[in-house]
Specification:
The chain is α/β, with parallel strands linked by helices. Helices cover 40% and strands 16% of the residues. The protein has 14 helices and 13 strands. A seven-stranded mixed sheet has the order 2-8-7-6-5-3-4, sandwiched between helices. A four-stranded antiparallel sheet has the order 9-10-13-12, covered by helices on one side.
């Protein structure tokens, strides 16, 4: 983009970045299988809490986090000093990068992966080293990650399981990475933990360079509230606080989170439904002779070859939204797993289309 005469030139790192335009418009009243959201909504307890507790006075004062931190800490089995609230996982990544990465320092990310890892590393002016997921299986490239770590590696960002592949690494593999990368800050994004069951959160007290983030956007069904948590040892958390705006998380988000973590029955039921629907989706794809990547998350990356764009567009015509990822995983479409009823609707549409 050419700057108008007299305009202030941005930093070179920003000029060099490719713009990120998530396709978020026009999604209401459709079957949303494109963004890995909870497809039925948050717990009714969340809505009840918001209706009952919010007053005009509540909205006129700045957020207070003490009570909410106690409740969330209890749910995750940590202390309030072990984490910061963040404005979604995106801010967790941003604060992590802002705290530990200087201009020109090396950041290791995997490819394909969640776009915000590269986004915030690029904004910081970092030197980015991409580690590709191997084709065709897209398994987690553990040995390649280990081989890439050097004394120059400043930070490593990875999702477990990964988006968009759905593949993950076990705790032993994560420990090998952390052991090799003792001089680097390592962020493990566990946005899809509830569907995989693998977590490094219990290791934060033992491993000083480990950071773990969780989100309320997926299983909790609160993507619109923009709330996440970034966990590490208290000394690290103190530095993260210094690099974060003091009121980046709003009062309604933390109020909703307190209600959400109390309704464990809702969470367990939704996870069980998604796991059953994931199995149904995989069986249905096999019957349609569509290959896919085995997933540990609430989505499946399906291979439609040169029909990937066509599949996305034809499904959209039937008000079913899926996400084309062929620009980074050739021929692939990512399908969010919702309920079994929603999955049957999708499979019927695919059968007619293919």
């Amino acid at each position: 983009m050419r700057l108008p005469k007299g305009a202030i030139r941005p930093r070179p790192a920003v000029i060099a970045m490719a713009p990120y335009h998530p396709p978020t418009a026009g999604r209401a009243d459709k079957l949303r299988l494109d963004f890995n959201e909870n497809t039925v909504g948050c717990s009714p307890s969340v809505i009840a809490a918001l209706k009952q507790a919010v007053t005009p006075e509540d909205l006129s004062i700045y957020p207070e986090y003490g009570k909410a931190k106690e409740a969330i800490a209890n749910y995750f089995g940590v202390t309030p000093d072990d984490f910061v609230f963040t404005n979604g996982t995106d801010e967790a990544i941003q604060v992590f990068i802002n705290t530990y990465v200087d201009d020109g320092q090396e950041v290791l990310v995997l490819k394909p992966a969640y776009a915000m890892y590269r986004f915030y590393a690029e904004v910081a002016g970092a030197s980015i080293l991409d580690i590709p997921y191997p084709q065709p299986g897209l398994e987690f490239p553990l040995q390649a990650v280990l081989d890439a770590i050097t004394p120059d590696t400043r930070a490593i960002l990875l999702a477990n399981p990964n988006n968009p592949t759905g593949t993950g690494v076990g705790l032993h593999g994560l420990e090998r990475i952390l052991s090799r990368a003792r001089r680097a800050a390592v962020l493990v994004d566990e946005a899809y933990y509830e569907f995989s069951g693998v977590t490094a959160l219990g290791e934060i007290g033992r491993i000083p360079n480990l950071f773990v983030c969780r989100t309320f956007s997926k299983v909790f069904g609160m993507a619109g509230m923009r709330l996440g948590c970034l966990f590490s040892q208290p000394a690290n958390i103190a530095y993260l606080h210094k690099a974060q705006s003091p009121y980046s998380v709003n009062s309604l988000a933390v109020l909703a989170a307190q209600a959400a973590v109390q309704d464990t029955f809702y969470i367990q039921n939704y996870v069980a439904e998604v796991l059953a629907a994931r199995e149904l989706l995989c069986l249905g794809l096999e019957k349609l002779a569509v290959s896919y990547v085995p997933s540990s998350a609430n989505f499946v990356l399906a291979r439609f070859g040169n029909r990937a764009i066509e599949v996305r567009d034809r499904l959209r015509e039937q008000a079913i939204l899926v996400r084309d990822r062929s620009y980074e995983a050739p021929g692939c479409v990512r399908i969010t797993v919702g309920t079994r009823e929603q999955t049957r609707k999708l499979l019927a549409a695919l059968e007619a289309l293919l």
